[in-house]
């Protein structure tokens, strides 16, 4: 009678649950924003009116009310875990057990599973143990256990599971005390267990015990952090009642990734050993445990699992201190129930996200696979591929060098070629200007106009005094040009060094998938750039020569500047003819200039001043020409490089590099082969994962239809 009532009750509950979950899955993304704590508050912490569920865990299928579709989802998640989707960066909702060494982690799992796990002092758990408890699918009376690790499946039994786990641990992490992050999966199918999947991790220890590696703490923390960092993880923090919680390493670690504790649940073990003050400890909550505390007492010594539960129940019922703790916070059955609920919540919450992530990752892998080079089967294909590669390199370079489009290197400012070249050109122009107008030179040292006067005297001829010889002007001009002629040459080197970097980089990137091309592409880049560099240097020499050999400009700026500068002659003469003590005056464009020494010279000063002002006015034009024509030249040179030289040089380097160059393209490089294999694996895995998920969704939909 009571039983059938129970079934009625459960059926209703299951159907309601499905409705609820369906809503949750479809509205999942929105739902996710909701704080998990709030969800757990309203769903998990609510008093369950079905007491049988809590009390008689041994007889009734433990979680018969555990609704079907959550089971399907959990199965799907377990299957994904088995497929190891985490290696594709897909995080799965997981309950992870952490705790300091000997805090009782394995004992808690043992209590939940009703089996014996390796247990004891020191470090027993040396690799992650993924424990999958399956109660609801399993109706046979004989429990079935097996281990999966390193691609193997090993059948075992309740009696031997401990030995089997130790053997597997030794196989993975060696006989010593070392640890490994390579997991063992233990599947327990037994009708009295909850449907729960949890990961037991090695306990944290600061001090290595005999035989443990020095860096054991770092190794173990690394494994633990890897598991507890993803926000999809629920942290089951196992704390011994005998210690001060804030001093626990495991609390420090879980707080590092979950400050507010919204995904941390605490299990307090060894309640029997330290009942004093336990109630205060769990109600004070000094350590921010968002999902609450459950105090338990695990199996001690040789007790059977059933005896242990009875002992636990009477401990919390009868002990004068422990019986004060609210019943919703004590006992393995409460813990099991709470975990199942939390698990269903995180799975429901993460499921839509997981589907999305798998889809995105699949699309990405497919895209990468498509962008790998095709396998070339014959010479025609090889030739086509070669032509395409050269074409695309040319394309990239012309975008970068000529058009200033840098969509292929958006994050690398050094590839914004026109901008970088313009900068270098500005620096070049400034350098020319700086070296030629020696403003400070005349301020104190009585040198103003002295060069001009000396040249005038050397070029003196027999003739009328008011015609100064042209050679005076050209001598001074050449002298000035000689002083700066190194600058344009240096500039050409700077520019081509820079361009060489760009060309090499683009050609290297283009031959990335065909390493066979790499060396010829590099040589091609080399000889292309040195050819262009030589041509540019020749141009610069010729350009400077032209300036030396003739003086001409059609630019009216010359006359304008000269006329303007000549107006200062009056000022100069005024100072020279007077007898002021102050003989320092402002003369454009030189600034403050000492002129007193010129009183010793007569008409020569007029000529020298005139020549200086002509040179100054003309020099502006010369610099402009040196900058402008070099800029134009380089621009042309770049387009020649791309459209006239490049293909020829590349073909010459490639074909000329030895016999069978094209044939060599037919062999796929091991790098590409590896990449292809990895991407194919990834695609296969992700497609399989998608199938697992969509099958789970189908089953849930069917269940919903059958129910209604
Ligand atoms: P782990 O290193 O965290 O996995 O800890 P174990 O589960 O191996 O437990 C360490 C020791 O504490 C073992 O000797 C257990 O028997 C003991 N232990 C665990 N839980 C309890 C408990 O609730 N009460 C008592 N008295 N001892 C416990
Ligand atoms: Mg352990």
TrEMBL record:
Instruction: Say if the entry is tagged with keyword GTP-binding.
Output: yes
Cite the InterPro entries for this sequence. Answer: Dynamin (IPR022812), Dynamin_GTPase (IPR001401), Dynamin_N (IPR045063), Dynamin_stalk (IPR000375), G_DYNAMIN_dom (IPR030381), GED (IPR003130), GED_dom (IPR020850), P-loop_NTPase (IPR027417)
Q: What CDD domains does this protein's entry cite?
A: DLP_1 (cd08771)
Q: Which residues form the Dynamin-type G domain?
A: 89-352
Task: Identify the GO cellular component terms for this protein.
Answer: cytoplasm; membrane; microtubule
Query: What ranges does the record give for the region Disordered, renumbered to this chain?
Result: 1-30
Task: Report the residue ranges that make up the GED domain in this protein.
Answer: 608-701
Extract the GO molecular function terms from the UniProt entry: GTP binding; GTPase activity; microtubule binding
Which keywords accompany this UniProt record? GTP-binding, Nucleotide-binding
Q: Does the keyword GTP-binding apply?
A: yes
Question: One of this protein's Pfam families, by short name?
Answer: GED
Q: What is this protein called?
A: Dynamin-related protein 4C-like
Q: Which organism does this sequence originate in?
A: Stephania yunnanensis
